[in-house]
Design brief:
This protein is mainly α. Helices cover about 70% and strands about 0% of the residues. The protein contains 12 helices and 2 strands; from the N terminus they run ααααααββαααααα. The chain has helices at about 5-25, 35-60, 60-90, 95-130, 130-150, 160-165, 190-215, 220-235, 235-240, 250-270, 280-300, 310-315; strands at about 180-185, 185-190. Helix 1 runs parallel beside helix 8, helix 4 (about 95-130) packs antiparallel against helix 8 and helix 6 runs antiparallel to helix 7. The chain starts with 5 loop residues before the first helix and ends in a 16-residue tail after the last helix.
């Protein structure tokens, strides 16, 4: 644990809100981002997250900076797993790219709020009751097992989206950037509203894995929340960059499973005063995720570039109604 000065929280808040304002101002209007522009913005947000690590090293502590970087890499890696869910939700609800940005913006705001609540409650729980760390460690190991066993080509339906679509008054048509419209004298939701709710519930489910993974590095609120926030900040641009290729990274789930299992074991081992230095955690994360991506790309190249079963599912015929079952992850 570190003694984080109050001014560090102020600096973090100013940087984060400034970044959110710049993001909103730069992406206003109807025009959808092209791939080149998305790459530039994704690079900017990743650079900002890494630059904040440098700030922590200079202004506070190099050791804290190491923990921040390890937590940031974990969160950035695990957030990639969200992107496939985003893609399936948007395609199943027939939301065009120029409207996806609105959904992702509200999804990011919601994620920042829910992650803050989860992180602050989680750190308080670990500080008060040490056995909570064993629970979080077990959750991570179980999540690693599930991800390791999953078939990337067979994605389960998003049960929350399906459940909400059957119970909320909704219109199947998208009406611009509106979340509600008047239809036959009553206010009903649009697919954009359903997409935001789907993204938020999905992020909450992913947070159950990713936040405890950050706790395996540090239980300091500043380290965990700032790393989460900067990882989430660039998620929209990263989605646009990787939307067409994320389904072809067929071995990525093995790398993610290894990272989660490592985090779970590390969190439990810490209760027995066995500490793994941050530099080893960083090296392990880079090795697992980088290795999984490289193996996936080599396998795709060896096949001559055909799409995987997962990408074929993504391009399958779209449902006629938002109430139908959708092939999204739950």
């Amino acid at each position: 644990m570190y003694s984080t000065p109050s001014w560090a929280w102020i600096v973090f808040g100013v940087v984060l809100f400034t970044a959110l304002f710049v993001d909103l101002f730069s992406h206003r209007g109807e025009r959808a981002d092209n791939h080149r522009r998305a790459v530039i913005w994704a690079s900017i947000w990743i650079s900002l997250g890494l630059s904040f690590c440098v700030f922590i090293a200079i202004a506070i502590s190099p050791a804290m900076a190491g923990d921040y970087l390890a937590a940031y890499l974990i969160e950035e890696s695990l957030s990639v797993d969200n992107l496939f869910v985003f893609l399936l939700i948007f395609q199943s609800l027939k939301i065009r790219p120029e409207y996806q940005r609105t959904v992702l913006t509200w999804g990011i705001f919601g994620a920042l709020v829910f992650r803050m609540i989860f992180i602050f409650l989680g750190t308080e729980a670990i500080e008060r009751w040490s056995w909570v760390a064993y629970v979080f460690g077990a959750i991570l190991i179980w999540a690693a097992y599930k991800i390791f066993r999953e078939d990337p080509g067979q994605k389960e339906e998003n049960k929350m989206v399906t459940w909400l679509s059957k119970r909320l008054p909704l219109t199947p048509e998208v009406h611009g950037h509106h979340f509600f419209v008047m239809k036959e004298g009553r206010r009903v939701g649009t697919p954009l509203l359903l997409a935001v709710l789907g993204l938020e519930t999905t992020d909450i489910m992913f947070a159950i894995d990713s936040v405890p993974a950050a706790f395996s590095v540090s239980t300091d609120k500043f380290v965990v929340y700032s790393s989460n926030a900067f990882a989430i900040l660039g998620l929209r641009s990263l989605y646009i960059v990787l939307a067409k290729s994320i389904s072809e990274l067929e071995y990525l789930h093995y790398g993610l499973a290894a990272v989660l299992a490592f985090a779970g074991i590390k969190l439990i081992a810490a209760q027995w005063h066995f500490h793994v230095p941050a530099v080893y955690s960083i090296a392990f994360i880079i090795l697992c995720i980088g290795g999984a991506v490289l193996v996936s790309l080599r396998a795709r190249k060896k096949r001559g570039g055909p799409k995987t079963a997962a990408s074929k599912d993504v391009g399958a015929e779209r449902p006629k109604d938002v109430g139908e079952k959708q092939p999204a992850r739950g």
